[in-house]
Amino acid sequence: MAKHVNKVILLGNVGKDPEVKFLPSGAAVANFSIATSDRYKDKAGEWQERTEWHNVAAFARTAEIVRDYVKKGSKLYVEGRLTTRSWDDKDTGKKVYRTEIMVNDLVLLSGRGEGEGGGGSTSYGGSKQSSSSSGAQGGYAQPAPDYGDTGITDDDIPF
Questions:
Q1: Domains held by the chain: number
Q2: Are 95 and 86 in contact (CB under 8 A)?
Q3: How far apart are CA 127 and CA 80, in angstroms?
Q4: What gap in Å lies between CA 129 and CA 47, rounded to an integer?
């Protein structure tokens, strides 16, 4: 049996403030776009830059994180899968297609309240649940637990 892979990795900036809506079930859905850039040499040997825009959708807790912490200009690392949906246009009756990245994992690379600036990073995602729980802590990862009182010494470590 052949193995199939549908994985997208993006590192870019958010084009405009995300739109967040709620499904009848109460689950949040965030839609936003991410710009990525690629450099190449043209026929004259000059460096050119090409920007690609990607439609992105996040669901449930990740969508709420996007609502609370992502703004136009925010730098994000996104992992997800590529999907295409279609519907009939109300006005023309023609079939319309939209290709999107469905978010599995999201890392905020901009600092709190920053657009394009650098800063700390915090990871949230649907597939990596261990990191998504940190979102309830104001956007910062929880500190590592202190195991100092367990009685383990350097002599107990096998390497």
A1: 1
A2: yes
A3: 10
A4: 41
Domain span holding position 87 = 8-38+48-133
**109: pLDDT confidence band, cut at 50, 70 and 90?**
very high
- HEC-encoded secondary structure of the chain: CCCCCCCEEEEEEECCCCEEEECCCCCEEEEEEEEEEEEEECCCCCEEEEEEEEEEEEEHHHHHHHHHHCCCCCEEEEEEEEEEEEEECCCCCCEEEEEEEEEEEEEECCCCCCCCCCCCCEEEECCCHHHHHHHHHCCCCCCCCCCHHHCCCHHHCCC
pLDDT at residue 154, rounded to an integer: 60
Summarize the confidence of residues 37-57 as an average pLDDT.
94
Whether 99 maps to a domain, the answer reads yes
**Cα-based distances in Å from 36 to 24, 44, 115:** 33, 24, 15
